[in-house]
Amino acid sequence: MKRFVAKLALLSLPLIAGAAYVARPTDAIAGEKCQIAVKGSSPTARACAKGGRDEARKVMKDMVTAAKTNGGKFSCDGCHQDVVSYELKPNAVEDYKKLQAASGMK
Ligand code: HEC
Questions:
Q1: Cα angle for residues 15, 16, 22 (degrees, 5° grid)
Q2: What would the pLDDT profile of 55-96 be if each residue is shown by its tens digit?
Q3: Which of 14, 47, 75, 80 lies 20 to 30 Å from 57 when distance is taken between CA atoms?
Q4: Domain boundaries of the chain, sorted by first residue
């Protein structure tokens, strides 16, 4: 029984850590490194290399805004599960090409 409790405690640790992570206010994430756009030479990957997620967010926002003026409709949550982990949805990589093309960014 004791072992079981210890195991439970171990199992719930990442959950607690995860919850704390999600609860962090977005402006406290400044200086965070990119986890996804870590290779390649997309505008986002280049921004990541330059200034981490802060810079990547800016570039992604610029792309979405630029695409909009060209008639494209994109939103962050159309490609990202959430704006904390930025985990990609299944369509994200394909749609990114469309977003980039519509934004005219190289
Ligand atoms: C059309 C799909 C799409 C849309 C819309 C989109 N993103 Fe992205 N985003 C991606 C893809 C794909 C990557 C990974 C790019 C790569 O690997 O080069 C990415 C990467 C990122 C990253 C880097 C994350 C990391 O850890 O590497 C951030 C930050 C980000 N996006 C923020 C945003 C924000 C903020 C918006 C809304 C303004 C947005 N994205 C809209 C597809 C999208």
A1: 85
A2: 999 999 999 999 999 999 999 999 999 989 999 999 999 999
A3: 14
A4: 27-103
Q: Whose CA is nearest to atom 39 of ligand 1?
A: 76
Our answer on whether the CB atom of 68 is closer than 6 Å to any ligand 1 atom is no
Q: What is the dihedral of CA 51, 84, 40, 52, to 10 degrees?
A: 10
The more confident residue out of 28 and 40 is: 40
pLDDT tens-place string over residues 31-43: 899 999 999 999 9
CB of 61 closer than 6 angstroms to any ligand 1 atom: yes
Ligand 1 neighbourhood includes 96 CB (under 6 angstroms): yes
Tokens of 45: 């990957």
CB of 36 closer than 6 angstroms to any ligand 1 atom? yes
